């Protein structure tokens, strides 16, 4: 099957998604809830692209290609929708996401600075009971990647999505923490998390120590 | 600056035989984090709590950082020159006084292929004896033996990818979600997507909950169970006649023998209901594509190698070999247990299992190495200990192995080590074994060296140094070549890559192997000279004379140990998710917090009749010795059986294990030990929870 990504023809297999076509064409489409290891999900609306002749932008990660489809990864409406979505997500966080995270990379892609909207922000809520894993609930953006990685890659079913709206978050076990849950410490959740809402003690220690070091250099 | 790390190195995990590809991230000169390589063929962007998190052992304060030499009852620090000279002097003296066969070496299944090849060359060429073995002796040597007998080559017939392509998978004596977590996760995911699992184990393993059928056969009865399955397959005409006629030999004898193993008779031996045996046989044989996976629950028995041959029989009669989705996959225990034996770190074979008794092969190595060698095999590990106790073996060079903790009949091993005139240990930590050493050499962990590991799929994968060895510790490659030179034998390698080139040159089946070709994707041997590798073996012929596979007609025989009035329970030993073998590495990481001490798993009904409760400390006695540890009640074990692991030196599980071992390969019978369990009178638990707070690990060095 042939489709066109930003006017470039690409050959794709039956059932391929718009995102897969864009990747083959080497056209960058930002993603946030997407992970190659997981089933497609389509929650974050960051991978929006335009389709010529289509009524509205579509999520690239869940939209299957059709023969001859003409995909516009730089569609203005799609970019605006995605950018606003990311900006809204950022506005709920108590601080800008760490530079290395996927969320920060997406924010850089959309050239987003301080969010324009000042709404309620998640208060810091850290759970460091596990010897390796740390939950920083305030950084959770409910992309569902950790829950899906736990289910679809490991099969431990230790993580659950909880709450609604602004209170949406994730929990290990029934809020008992990783150690009392069915967690097997495979770390797939921390590995896939795009915001460091789940990360490692050692990496937080590293960030803290390099912050101190940099501070001393500046002084 | 979006990268937190100063360097990221792609390497291969040094824990189990799955062979996960890892990204090791470095900051301040140390590995601070590990994440999975997205393109790892075995792990596909996943890893487990060992590979991902248990890396801080490499930065542990008690790493060996300088050579140690024995002096007046203790050890003192020494220079490399002094330590190596001492080794050369003593090995030279013993060789001239008693001959080279008074010396033996052990290579390590945790070390690289290149390290193991250099080690066997050191022992064979520099010392001059075939007394070289490795720790696969005590785990999968029966698998190697049987696969060579039945099919021709010593390795899995396919790849882990076959699991996702199979319709049915039969798991025998293996607990992948604990012992091989990433493959365990792949099996579980496949089961959730429709793969039918049949499990056979004295414990109800986690994957049994995701399977179609679980058979809780009694320990030591695998052969009867396999015969029962074969009986039903033959009786109900589920065999593939064309395949049997065109590709195999010896079926008639198997057919005849299987006749006596009716499901009812097998139920009597194994305790598995006859109807389950029938159902399992139909499920396996009626599938178009079926895999069999097994582990040490098959091999570590008196007749372990014969059970593997019976497994091969079942695959052959149903043509479930040599096709995608129809593979025999032994799950190998250590990261390089496949490779250490492939490399010829065995007393009877050079690389690719070619025997030292073959004059042409030994001559080729003599010419390449410029030495003369015997045409008789050397000693296996248990024979080495016997010879040491008898006074015939005077010196050992033990590299990366803690035999005093992991080998059976601990008291006998200790006596052997005490009896030696001279012992060299090369390791990353002091161990139970190094307590007996005269010289201890500080070596490097997998994060600090370069070379290759071969995983359970026969896949060679690159190991790349992500950090420097601590202090004056050296890589094993540097140490072994240096010791060889001190013995007056220069090997002439500059890098481990040169070693791989020699392996390829000397071994037709490995002809196309090189570090460059292995690259990121790895190579599954055999590797042709043009670099073509072999994900699936035996697609059109078997590697035996005539190209045909061999059925083996082997009757069930009783295990070496049996319960009686004095020792009424059967102890099975095994591995736990959080720890790895002797625990040398994992006990020095946060994994110890996740599992701080070991327990004896007991069925609640057995516990009630013994008068013990959950958490009680009990004494476990066998015919060989006794240990004490706390009890954990679980219904996952069958009544009449108890289970524990061997990860904690303070528990010393292997004191209980006797000298019973596989009839063909001397692999110890770790899986069937008759014991008694009693409440301990003075409740002083040996294995206690350590008082430990999480330190900020970045500041630890």
Describe this entry's structure for a reader.
The complex is a heterodimer of chains A (219) and B (701). Chain A has helices at residues 18-24, 76-91, 102-109, 145-154, 188-192, 201-218, and strands spanning 2-5, 8-11, 48-51, 58-59, 70-72, 126-127, 133-136, 159-162, 169-172, 198-200. Chain A is an alpha+beta fold. Chain A has 2 domains: 1-118, Ubiquitin-like (UB roll) (Roll); 126-218, Alpha-Beta Plaits, CATH 3.30.70. In chain A, strands 2-1-5-3-4 form a 5-stranded mixed beta sheet, sandwiched between helices. Chain A has a 3-stranded antiparallel beta sheet with strand order 6-7-10. The model of chain A is unreliable at 215-219 (pLDDT under 50). In chain B, helix 3 packs parallel to helix 20, helix 11 (263-270) packs across helix 12 and helix 17 crosses helix 19 (410-419). A 7-stranded mixed beta sheet of chain B has the order 5-4-16-15-14-6-7, with helices on both faces. Chain B has a 6-stranded mixed β-barrel with strand order 21-25-22-24-23-26. Chain B has a 5-stranded parallel beta sheet with strand order 10-9-8-12-13. Chain B is α/β, with parallel strands linked by helices. The longest helix of chain B has 19 residues, at 80-98. Helices cover 31% and strands 17% of the residues of chain B. Chain B contains 24 helices and 26 strands. Chain B has 4 domains: 7-59, N-terminal domain of TfIIb (Single Sheet), CATH 2.20.25; 68-139 and 335-524, Rossmann fold, CATH 3.40.50; 141-330, Dimethylsulfoxide Reductase, domain 2; 569-679, Barwin-like endoglucanases. The chains are: A alpha+beta (219), B alpha/beta (701).
Provide tags for this entry.
heterodimer, A: 219 residues, alpha+beta, Ubiquitin-like (UB roll), Alpha-Beta Plaits, 2 domains, 5-stranded mixed beta sheet, 3-stranded antiparallel beta sheet, 6 helices, 10 strands, 29% helix, globular, B: 701 residues, alpha/beta, N-terminal domain of TfIIb, Rossmann fold, Dimethylsulfoxide Reductase, domain 2, 7-stranded mixed beta sheet, disordered C terminus
């Amino acid at each position: 099957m042939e489709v066109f990504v930003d006017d470039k023809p690409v050959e794709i297999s039956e059932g391929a998604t718009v995102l897969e076509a864009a990747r083959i064409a080497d056209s960058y489409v930002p993603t946030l809830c997407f992970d190659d290891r997981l089933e497609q999900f389509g929650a974050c609306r960051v991978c929006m692209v335009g389709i010529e002749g289509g009524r509205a932008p579509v999520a690239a990660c869940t939209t299957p290609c059709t023969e001859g489809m003409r995909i516009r990864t730089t569609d203005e409406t799609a970019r605006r929708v995605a950018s606003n979505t990311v900006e809204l997500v950022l506005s709920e966080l108590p601080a800008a996401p760490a530079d290395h995270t996927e969320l920060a990379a997406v924010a850089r892609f959309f050239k987003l600075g301080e969010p324009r909207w000042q709404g309620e922000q998640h208060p810091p809520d850290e759970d460091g009971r596990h010897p390796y894993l740390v939950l920083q609930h305030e950084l959770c953006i409910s992309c569902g990647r950790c829950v899906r990685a736990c289910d679809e890659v490991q099969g431990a079913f230790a993580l659950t999505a909880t709450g609604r709206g602004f209170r949406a978050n994730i929990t290990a076990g029934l809020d008992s923490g990783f150690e009392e849950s069915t967690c097997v410490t495979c770390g797939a959740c921390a590995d896939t998390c795009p915001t460091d809402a789940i990360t490692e003690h050692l990496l937080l220690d590293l960030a803290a120590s390099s912050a101190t070091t940099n501070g001393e250099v500046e002084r | 600056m979006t990268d937190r790390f100063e360097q990221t190195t792609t390497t291969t995990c040094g824990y189990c035989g799955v062979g996960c590809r890892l990204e090791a991230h470095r900051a301040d000169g140390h590995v601070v984090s590990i994440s999975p390589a997205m393109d790892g063929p075995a792990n596909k962007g996943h890893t487990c709590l060992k590979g991902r998190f248990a890396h801080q052992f490499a930065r542990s304060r008690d790493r060996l950082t300088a050579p140690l030499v024995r002096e007046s009852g203790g050890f003192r620090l020494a220079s490399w020159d002094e330590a190596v000279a001492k080794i050369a002097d003593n090995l030279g003296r013993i060789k001239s006084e008693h001959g080279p066969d008074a010396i033996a070496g052990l290579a390590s299944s945790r070390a690289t292929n290149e390290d193991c090849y250099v080690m066997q060359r050191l022992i064979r060429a520099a010392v001059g004896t075939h007394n070289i073995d490795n720790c696969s002796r005590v785990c999968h040597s029966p698998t190697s033996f049987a696969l060579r007998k039945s099919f021709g080559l010593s390795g899995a017939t396919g790849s882990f990818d076959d699991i996702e392509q199979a319709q049915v998978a039969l798991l025998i004596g293996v607990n992948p979600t604990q012992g091989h977590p990433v493959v365990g996760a792949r099996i579980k995911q496949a089961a959730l997507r429709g793969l039918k699992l049949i499990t056979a184990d004295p414990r109800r393993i986690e994957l049994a909950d995701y399977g179609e059928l679980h058979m809780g056969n009694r320990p030591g009865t695998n052969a009867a169970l396999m015969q029962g399955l074969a009986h039903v397959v033959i009786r109900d005409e589920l065999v593939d006649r064309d395949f049997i006629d065109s590709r195999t030999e010896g079926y008639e004898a198997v057919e005849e023998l299987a006749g006596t193993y009716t499901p009812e008779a097998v139920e009597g031996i194994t305790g598995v209901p006859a109807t389950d045996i029938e159902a399992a046989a139909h499920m396996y044989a009626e599938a178009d594509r079926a895999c069999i996976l097994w582990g040490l629950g098959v091999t570590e028995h008196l007749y372990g190698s014969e059970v593997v041959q019976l497994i091969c029989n079942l695959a052959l009669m149903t043509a479930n070999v040599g096709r995608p989705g129809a593979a025999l996959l032994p799950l190998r225990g250590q990261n390089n247990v496949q490779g250490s034996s492939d490399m010829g770190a065995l007393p009877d074979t050079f690389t690719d299992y070619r025997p030292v008794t073959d004059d042409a092969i030994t001559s080729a190595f003599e010419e390449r190495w410029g030495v003369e060698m015997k045409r008789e095999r050397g000693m296996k590990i248990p024979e080495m200990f016997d010879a040491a106790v008898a006074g015939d073996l005077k010196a050992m060079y033990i590299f990366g192995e803690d035999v005093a903790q992991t080998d059976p009949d601990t008291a006998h091993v200790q006596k052997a080590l005490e009896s030696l005139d001279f012992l060299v240990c090369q390791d990353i930590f002091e161990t139970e074994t190094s307590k007996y050493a005269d010289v201890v050499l500080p070596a490097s962990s997998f994060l600090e060296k370069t070379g290759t590991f071969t995983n359970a799929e026969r896949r060679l994968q690159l190991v790349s140094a992500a950090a420097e060895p601590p202090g004056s510790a050296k890589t094993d490659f540097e140490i072994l070549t240096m010791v060889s030179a001190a013995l007056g034998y220069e090997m002439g390698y500059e890098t481990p890559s040169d070693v791989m080139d020699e392996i390829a040159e000397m071994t037709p089946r490995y002809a196309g192997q090189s570090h460059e070709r292995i690259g990121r994707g790895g190579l599954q041997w055999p590797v042709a000279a043009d670099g073509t590798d072999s994900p699936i073996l035996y697609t059109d012929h078997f590697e035996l004379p005539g190209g045909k596979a061999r059925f083996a007609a082997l009757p069930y025989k009783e295990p070496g140990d049996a319960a009686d009035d004095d020792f009424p329970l059967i102890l099975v030993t095994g591995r736990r998710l959080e720890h790895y073998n002797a625990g040398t590495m994992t006990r020095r990481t946060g994994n110890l917090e996740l599992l701080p001490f070991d327990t004896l798993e007991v069925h609640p009904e057995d516990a009630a009749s013994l008068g013990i409760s959950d958490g009680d400390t009990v004494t476990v006695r066998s015919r060989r010795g006794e240990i004490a540890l706390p009890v954990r009640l679980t219904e996952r074990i069958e009544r009449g059986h108890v289970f524990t692991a061997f990860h904690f030196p303070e528990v010393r599980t292997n004191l209980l294990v006797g000298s019973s071992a596989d009839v063909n390969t001397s692999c110890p019978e770790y899986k069937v030990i008759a014991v008694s369990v009693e409440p301990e009178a003075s409740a002083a638990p040996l294995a206690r929870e350590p008082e430990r707070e999480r330190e900020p690990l970045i500041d630890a060095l």
